[in-house]
Amino acid sequence: MFEQLFKSIQDKVILTQEELELCKTFFIPKKLRKKQVLLQEGDICIYNTFIEKGLLRSFTMDEKGNEHIVQFAIEGWWITDLSSYLTNSTSIYTIEALEDSELLLLTTSAREALMDKIPMFERYQRLLLQNAYIANQARINSALTETAEEKYINLGNTYPGIVKRVPQHMIASYLGLTPETLSRIRKQISLRK
Amino acid sequence: MFEQLFKSIQDKVILTQEELELCKTFFIPKKLRKKQVLLQEGDICIYNTFIEKGLLRSFTMDEKGNEHIVQFAIEGWWITDLSSYLTNSTSIYTIEALEDSELLLLTTSAREALMDKIPMFERYQRLLLQNAYIANQARINSALTETAEEKYINLGNTYPGIVKRVPQHMIASYLGLTPETLSRIRKQISLRK
Questions:
Q1: Which residues in chain B touch residue A125, judged by CB atoms under 8 angstroms apart?
Q2: Distance between CA atoms of residues A140 and A2, nearest Å
Q3: A90 — contact with chain B (CB < 8 Å)?
């Protein structure tokens, strides 16, 4: 159950076998079936969630009932509403499983305790935060400067695993396009090959 | 010269007097006069900059030559292009002093060394990253959901010190409004009082 988590940690920092075993005790394992919800909009996001297996998405809904997908996450990734999680405020996002998934949940107090006990876990968390910040910034810049086609191609290059596993209308929602526009773009790309 | 920095650190973590003295040796003090530039678009952002005194802004320029202000920062704050700083990539931002300013510069290698020597400095950096991430997320949500008037009022409530010290056309640029729209909004608000 902890294989992917240990890989994620040891890609960034060095922990002893003892420390890794200690880590285990702070996480709450949870399984979600496809379409089950981990976080409901309006609730406080009390878990930072590591994905051992499966695929989740976070999304927000506008007043007209249209979904806007904020993030996809697959095994080896973390997913949460970080603002809600860190500030204890209600979340504007829903997090839902798109495949049967195996998760490891970390509350804020468990996270604080882990960082106190294992300084290298704090470094791991800092490096995750840096990456999240950079990804967020890249997403903003992409929204401001790239054409629809560039956004689609870059998504496929950066996250090939996700594009293959997610229905096209969700890819469109993530990119801020209508399904029709995305379909037209994919046709144009395939004609050029 | 280190008053504001020490206050910023000790608001978040506890450092010994020895550790604070050690901190000093890792920063490069620098003074900028009004309108002088700290980072030029196209360069790599090699400093994370703490502001002891003064006011700076970061902005990007579109193809038509219009400036888009990304951030203001006053004494007690950090300013940098975090993505460029952390990934060694060229920056799309320019950082410029809007008042005569006194700065403390931290290179990435000095930051790494400080975090290795003083674990609580790493915690301080993690907490700064968390706040930066949350502020970034709030900025995105505000852009997506708030009216122009709400944006202006919230900016004044959140950062009264900045609104008073910055020319109105720059406030407009930060909020993504034309100066004329902002002027109309301010008139409407003052009429209602």
A1: 126
A2: 33
A3: no
Distance from CA of B82 to the nearest CA of A (A): 7
* A138 and A153 part of one domain: no
Range of the domain at A179: 148-193
User: ∠ at Cα A42 (A37, A47), nearest 5°?
Assistant: 55
Tell whether B134 and B182 lie within a shared domain: no
Asked if A152 and A189 sit in the same domain, the reply is yes
Which is it for strands B101-107 and B47-53: parallel, antiparallel or unpaired?
antiparallel
- ipTM tops the 0.85 cut: no
How many domains does chain B contain in total?
Answer: 2
Chain A positions in Cβ-Cβ contact with residue B83 (cut-off 8 Å): 133-134, 137-138
pLDDT digit string, tens, across residues B82-106:
999 999 999 999 999 999 999 999 9
Tens-of-pLDDT digits for all 193 residues of chain A?
899 999 999 999 999 999 999 999 999 999 999 999 999 999 999 999 999 999 999 999 888 888 889 899 999 999 999 999 999 999 999 999 999 999 999 999 999 999 999 999 999 999 999 999 988 888 777 776 788 899 899 888 888 889 899 999 999 999 888 999 999 999 999 888 7
Report the CATH number at residue A12. Answer: 2.60.120.10
A60 and A118 both lie in a single domain: yes
C-alpha dihedral, A79 to A83 to A88 to A93, nearest 10°: -60
Query: Is the CB of B83 less than 8 angstroms away from the CB of A129?
Result: no
Asked if residue B152 and residue B78 are part of one domain, the reply reads no
What the block records as the tokens of B46 is: 């090699």
Only one residue has tokens 């006069």, namely: B33
Residues B152 and B138 in one domain: no
Q: Does pTM surpass 0.90?
A: no
Nearest one of A56, A36, A72, A49 to A175, comparing CA atoms: A72
Q: Are residues B128 and B184 in the same domain?
A: no
